[in-house]
Amino acid sequence: MSATQKPRIPSLLKKYLMALSGLVLVLFVLGHMIGNLQFFAGPEVINAYAYHLHHLPGNPVSLWLIRLVLLATLLIHVWMAVLLTKENREARPDTYLDQKTSVATYASRTMPISGVLILAFIVFHILQFTVRVVPEHYDKTIGESSIEVGHVPLEYFDVFAMMVAGFSSPLISLFYIVTMGLLCMHLTHGVSSMFQSVGLRNESWRPKLKAAALAYGWIIFLGFASIPAAVLAGFGKDYLADKEAQWRAAAAVTTQSH
Amino acid sequence: MELNSNIPDGPMAEKWSSHKTKIKLVNPSNRRKYHVIIVGSGLAGASAAASLAEMGYQVSCFCYQDSPRRAHSIAAQGGINAAKNYQNDGDSIYRLFYDTVKGGDFRSREANVHRLAEVSVNIIDQMVAQGVPFAREYGGLLDNRSFGGAQLSRTFYARGQTGQQLLLGAYQQLSKQIGLGAVKMYNRHEMLEVVLVDGHAKGIITRNLVNGKIERWAADTVVLATGGYGNVFFLSTNAQGCNVTAAYRAYKKGAGFANPCYTQIHPTCIPVHGDQQSKLTLMSESLRNDGRIWVPKDKAAAEKIRKGELNPNDVAEDDRDYYLERKYPSFGNLAPRDISSRSAKEVCDEGLGVATSGLGVFLDFRDSINRLGKDVIAQRYGNLFDMYQCITGDNPYETPMMIYPAVHYTMGGLWVDYNLESNIPGLFVAGEANFSDHGANRLGASALMQGLADGYFVLPYTVGHYLGRQGIAKAGEIKSDHPAFDDAEKAVRERIDKLLSIKGDESPRSFHQRLGKIVWDKCGMARSKEGLEEAIKDIQDLRKEFWTRVRVLGDGDELNQELERAGRVADFLEFGELLCRDALMREESCGGHFRTEHQYTQEDEEVQSGFLSEGEAKRHDDKYNFVGVWEYQGDDVEPKLNQESLVYEEIEMATRSYK
Amino acid sequence: MHLHLKIWRQKNGDESGKFVSYELPEVDEGSSFLEMLDIMNEQLVEKGEPPVAFDHDCREGICGMCSLVINGEAHGPERATTACQLHMRHFNDGDTITIEPWRAKAFPVVKDLVVDRTAFDKVIQAGGFITARTGSAPDANEIPIPKPVADHAMDGAACIGCGACVAACPNGSAMLFTSAKVGHLNSLPQGQAEKYSRVTKMVDAMDTAGFGNCTNYGECQAVCPKEITLDFIAKMNRDYAVARIKNFFNKAS
Ligand SMILES: Cc1cc2nc3c(=O)[nH]c(=O)nc-3n(C[C@H](O)[C@H](O)[C@H](O)COP(=O)(O)OP(=O)(O)OC[C@H]3O[C@@H](n4cnc5c(N)ncnc54)[C@H](O)[C@@H]3O)c2cc1C
Ligand code: HEM
Ligand code: HEM
Ligand code: SF4
Ligand code: F3S
Ligand code: FES
Fold first, then answer.
1. Radius of gyration in angstroms for the set of CA atoms belonging to chain C, rounded to a whole number
2. Residue of B nearest to C188 (CA)
3. pLDDT per residue over B141-170, tens digit each?
4. Distance of alpha carbon B38 from alpha carbon B224, whole angstroms
5. Which one of A134, A200, B288, C131 is most buried, counting C-beta atoms within 10 A?
6. How far is A80 from chain C (nearest CA, A)?
7. pTM of the predicted structure, to 2 decimals
8. For residue B533, what are the contacts with CB-CB under 8 A and spacing of at least 6?
9. Tell me, what's the ipTM?
10. Radius of gyration over alpha carbons of chain B, in Å?
């Protein structure tokens, strides 16, 4: 039986790649969430933040470098996840008639599924907010708005309005909130598991890390989900309506002038 | 039968070292031309296989379990002796030697025992180097405890799992050699025959237990390290698969079987709970340090306790008989194994026994808990109490434990000379399977020592000595197509076919149980001429019944545990008779062998003077100071007794007293 | 007590198996689980049906041979207890008990409830030892070993190689077993010389034997009769990383 085995990437190497890529993603998600929470500080703040992100020193190389690293990390994470899941299914082809689970959490047992759904979310999310092509045309209506960068006033794409517009669709908001729930689950296992995978967990630290992972997962969930939830509850609605009116008017002017 | 013990000349303390200098050596480059078969992967087998392979011999090793790591050595709890004198309490090689000879009730061969004591120190070094995690003191040095009545602390231990840790050490060395290709390991292979060519052991026949294949294996020499035969009693502390088959097959091929009647009964086991019980569990003897052994004085009270109508805690102090404390005031509850076992039997025979079966006595911690507190007791024995509770469901902190003696170890075994070679040239026997070092009674913590001594420090020399004597021209000369293999294989096949073809109505297990009952009742803790004669007859009848009525389901060419058991039981049915014959022949009591006719009574001056109490074992050194070696003469023919007389040069024979 | 049993029957490794139901009218609650199976087998023999094959030897929880999944749990419902040490008083009259073999690709079924665990031996053969030539050892007290280190090593060494960890792991991973041995040997001073080669070789052997990867479920620890902890897995992960890094730089230089 053993002779027929294909050579595998050593199991522990896979685990390390999984954990390290997970760590990068964990840090990114946290940063991203903190950044996004500036949404509640109003259009000026979040729009300025978006501006900064897109005008990092060394732009545009730096931005693309960061994107590349993130993409590579995600690819490694997903690739390892696929290998692990596939090999693990092969290693345990049959289940028990009356399968009992003693300690493995629901989150840990659904990592591949939550992962795949998160991946689907990321694709959608980038198409929506970065490439801005889904849902169709919604962003075409969004124009620029004034921000201040180092006391210099200038006009920049209105990310705030985009977020409000995006989340005005209950379906999309719901999709976000559900996925954030999955992400929360993925992280409640993932963050503590990460420490185990790199050998930094022991009997006395395990409960503490578990609690930290749980807290982290919930923070991420609440932080992110608060945005679509707030929009559904009406946050920024008036602003968007005002702005839309302005942009429509401006657009009318431009068309006329042609 | 020629029994030459081949004890080297010279003073006792120099015999082994001078023997080693004179022994034949095999040139390292020639060693790989020799093939050594080792049957058994316990302490003795695994250590021998690893060492011989390391030296360069080609080794094949066999065991019946699914992995060599599971040999029954794994179950030893207590510890291993060595004359290290790390405690500076005056231990020495001589003292260990002396204690072992005395403990064996002067029925062992001095020279072997002395060598055992000598190499005991190397064993500890070797095992530590391999990573055996022996218990340590806070300073980081090895810890010791005292064991089995010895007056010093010379026992090394690894929690309650010393045997496991030692076996895993040896298993790891064996595994290394398997990984290197120097040992070929055959798991789930049962040896069913030894093959002799011109009187020398040159191979074996095995059955592959997974697919039933009968296979032949040729070699230049064969080592049997197949463990003890305690399972002849059906219930014992042995593993289910422990058997006499390998040794008995060799006996039937002409190897002498020495002292089969020397069996050891351990006093502190968990009592039998019913007639479906399959094995007995040992509770460490250390419990006797703080537990007090008693039975009710009154039969009616005992009866009520058995029925569950009376709580033992309600039996008043005056109504309890602390019989060991009464009979042996100075040793009390710590009287030696054989004496405490026999006393338990006596009180139970009188109808004072507790436990549902009536075969049990109390081991009560009430007084120690009151004196020392529950915490101290829990610290000392917590895991044993848990184990007891796990098995019986009773909480020993609240109700007294119940214990009863059980068969634990067999001192008898195939006869071997000083080189551990049997009277069949080229057939070596090591570990519990041989008779060599423990005489009529084994001291605690010395079987592990012996297994490792044999495998690591004796066989690597003496096997080479045999091969060297054969000469390199003979290396690998015998192949498995030799006609002797045809005959042996045929015999094995016929036996299996016969077992399968009887298609009777009673399971092998049931026969085993019936045999066990006969041997336990009549050749257990107390034996008498009358009982033994009955037993021999009963066993003969049972054997006949077996061969007409046994039902072995399934086929020979598959994994068939019924067939495995049937084969083992068939051998036990013959061997059980030999055991009883030996017990009948030995008209004395010594060590684990107690003949009711031979005990000290009021008439003896030792009793009158108070040196011994009534009922102590009475040796007859004038007539029975020999190893009884049985020679097979044919099926259903009385075997022939040969004698190797024992000479005590170093130690003066004496009567044991524990009063 | 009266029991209904549902037992996996499989003639051999090549044929597929199925569950078969049996009735057991009378078992003493003081019997061990394996004695219960003995009784059932005797009953089958009486009826002329082939008895159920199952592995067992010591029946005192130390040899690691017994290997039953009882009602979906490796070694049954009691913590820190092997199947052979499990007693019937933990079940109720009238219970239905499902009994299955270990299930993992690396442990193919041989017959009924018997599986082939030689994959474990292969892992040990790859590096689960300390090289110490017979007769070459220095005095045992030459290297003092602090008690906590010796105790920790013993915690890992207590593993009985039963395979319940693999059976319980939804990934069929042998991490607990392998890490227990790595942890035992790598924490002792005697084991230092081969520390890094040991961990890489044993992990490789574990992978080639067809065991799955660990995703930190922790089921293994829950069923382990010897209470080996996940700490050993973490420690092995650590040792492995150091080994790879050392190896990388050794190759590079
Ligand atoms: C419960 C218990 C506790 C003990 N405690 C202690 C203690 O504290 N201290 C102490 O010193 N001693 C103790 N002993 C005794 C000691 O453990 C044994 O005597 C010793 O380990 C025997 O080792 P061995 O190598 O001779 O045989 P075993 O370890 O029994 O090995 C026998 C080997 O032979 C193989 N085998 C047997 N028959 C066949 C066959 N027909 N074909 C192929 N292979 C076969 C088996 O597979 C196995 O590998 C204890 C014994 C028991 C039962
Ligand atoms: C994009 C799709 C994703 C997939 C398919 C996926 C899949 C998986 C899977 C199967 C595991 C379990 C592996 C294991 O426990 O060893 C895992 C672990 C993990 N994932 Fe993801 N995941 C994805 C995205 C993410 C994201 C976005 C994050 C962070 C925000 C993340 C963080 C983690 C962490 C921290 C672990 C734990 C690593 C470890 O145990 O060592 N994952 N992922
Ligand atoms: C409610 C939740 C979220 C909101 C409101 C949100 C918002 C945004 C916005 C506005 C952008 C565009 C930034 C810009 O281009 O200026 C963006 C980009 C991005 N988001 Fe989110 N996000 C959310 C959740 C997530 C989650 C959970 C993940 C990952 C798992 C994620 C991953 C990304 C990525 C990868 C980008 C692309 C960054 C780039 O431009 O390279 N987002 N997000
Ligand atoms: S780690 Fe535990 S479950 Fe796994 S083999 Fe060892 S003892 Fe059995
Ligand atoms: S259950 Fe399996 S996933 Fe890892 S923690 Fe144990 S090996
Ligand atoms: S039979 Fe030995 S551990 Fe269960």
1. 21
2. B131
3. 999 988 765 678 899 999 889 999 999 999
4. 6
5. B288
6. 11
7. 0.96
8. B584
9. 0.95
10. 24
